[in-house]
Amino acid sequence: MSTVAERCWASMPRLTARDAHRVDYRHVVDTLLRKPGGFRDYRYRDDLFPTTVFRRAWEALEARLPPRRADLAYLRVLKLAATTLEVDVERALADALAAGAPWDDRTVAARVRPAVASPPALATGAVDLTAYDALLGDPPEADDAAA
Description:
Layout: E1 2-4, E2 7-10, H1 25-34, H2 37-40, H3 52-64, H4 67-83, H5 86-99, H6 105-112, H7 130-136, H8 142-146
Antiparallel strand pairs: 1-2
Helix pairs in contact: 1-4, 3-4, 3-5, 4-5, 4-6, 5-6
């Protein structure tokens, strides 16, 4: 358990069984993206499905795409879950699975990160500082300050 300011921000269950393991996908997704072929034979692959929706999504990709493309698309979805909110990615995956239409990692990313409209252009004019100078009044004479 780690604490910051006496608040628990992370806890890990103690694994006491022989050969017990727990892999957090957030820690390995970048490495697996560099070598997506390693995902299919990864020893701890089952730990890379945070929920059943993620597992169903990978199975749907695997059924529809060639193996390397399916693995890469799923790893990109995992990367999206690691860098945004996992629950938002899960919701987008559930919607895509329910729709039954073909989808991929870009479709999920578009649902999680909708296109943001560019901010409106603001007109800027020249700044006139004479009004501020008038607030200060006349500067004191140099001769008065010396006396």
